[in-house]
Amino acid sequence: MATLWTRGIQVCRALPRLCTAPSVQRRTSVRLMSTEKDNLLVDVDSKTGVATMQMNRPPVNSLNLEFLTSISIALEKLENEKCRGLILTSDVPKIFCAGLDILEMYQPDVERLQVFWRSLQDVWLRLYGSKMATIAAINGHSPAGGCLLATCCDYRIMAPNYTIGLNETQLGIVAPFWFRDTMCGVIGHRETEHALTLGIMYSTEEALNIKLVDKVVPQDKVIPAAQEKMKQYLKIPEVARQLSKDLMRRETVEKLRLRREDDVAAFKNFAVRESVQKSLGMYLEMLKKKSQQKK
Ligand SMILES: CCCCCCCCCCCCC/C=C/C(=O)SCCNC(=O)CCNC(=O)[C@H](O)C(C)(C)COP(=O)(O)OP(=O)(O)OC[C@H]1O[C@@H](n2cnc3c(N)ncnc32)[C@H](O)[C@@H]1OP(=O)(O)O
């Protein structure tokens, strides 16, 4: 335990401007930032070696380039620090993650668009391929890229009355093969085909029925339930657990690793299509109208 505590401090020393001092005894709080302030809070519990990563990019935790970069750096650090487990959750009320920031794809700067996509690939490769035991504590809505993050994890616990799914077709876009493969690994081929073609957003209860999420607990129990489940993962001999996960996921991970640049090109060429830009513009307009009606 003490070793990890020291390791935690070393993270802080390595990133003097990016970290806050540990606030609780035997608990190291490392705040990682990139260009956006405090959008990610990572607490490493020195006793258990479990990190809790809270996404905090209001209003909806949408994944823009800077936010993805923060997540990617944090995942790399946790892996390097040999953290044993990760609980991924949100600090934004009622939202786990609204998926990719649509503004990154709408009327894009083509250079940035490609860097943006590579940063999403990085996050996926690190999270899906992580040696850590990973649990998504889904305490809010989780469309598209949010669902991707959740399905990258080993286990999903969700609060009632939210929605989750890969709704890309509803925006006139397509979930790429690695989104599909991740989803397939969780709910199987037939349900994934159904989900992707129709862009289905499942209610929490529906998600539980198709095993897109593993467990449903009340909102205030989502993180405690994740911590409890994590204990089960951590009881398994580390190497056996990691190798079993690797055996299940290696092929999928390698597929993207080998095709990264082709995938970037496919994304860029698709995103800049006139028809796609039109669809994204209409979808953004619809979101704005809906948001204004609430105000
Ligand atoms: C030949 C073919 C080859 C194919 C090759 C592959 C090509 C690859 C193609 C591209 C693949 C891309 C994959 C995309 C993945 C994605 O993640 S796309 C994003 C999808 N996300 C959504 O659809 C979510 C939309 N948002 C919502 O449904 C709701 O906002 C919410 C999350 C349920 C929250 O609702 P509520 O609390 O009511 O908040 P709102 O009022 O709706 O929103 C507040 C403000 O936030 C803005 N906003 C919401 N979501 C996003 C977002 N994803 N990006 C950017 N901005 C977002 C919303 O507009 C509001 O803004 P204001 O109007 O300024 O208040």
TrEMBL record:
GO terms for cellular component: mitochondrial matrix. The keyword Transferase does not apply. It is found in: Mitochondrion matrix. GO terms for molecular function: delta(3)-delta(2)-enoyl-CoA isomerase activity. Pathway: Lipid metabolism; fatty acid beta-oxidation. Its main location: mitochondrion. Keywords: Acetylation, Fatty acid metabolism, Isomerase, Lipid metabolism, Mitochondrion, Transit peptide. It catalyses: (3Z)-decenoyl-CoA = (2E)-decenoyl-CoA; (3Z)-octenoyl-CoA = (2E)-octenoyl-CoA; (3Z)-dodecenoyl-CoA = (2E)-dodecenoyl-CoA; (2E)-tetradecenoyl-CoA = (3Z)-tetradecenoyl-CoA. InterPro entries: ClpP/crotonase-like_dom_sf, Enoyl-CoA_hyd/isom_CS, Enoyl-CoA_hydra/iso. Pfam families: ECH_1. One of its GO terms (biological process) is fatty acid beta-oxidation. Key enzyme of fatty acid beta-oxidation. Able to isomerize both 3-cis (3Z) and 3-trans (3E) double bonds into the 2-trans (2E) form in a range of enoyl-CoA species, with a preference for (3Z)-enoyl-CoAs over (3E)-enoyl-CoAs. The catalytic efficiency of this enzyme is not affected by the fatty acyl chain length. Belongs to the enoyl-CoA hydratase/isomerase family. Homotrimer. This is Enoyl-CoA delta isomerase 1, mitochondrial. It comes from Mizuhopecten yessoensis.
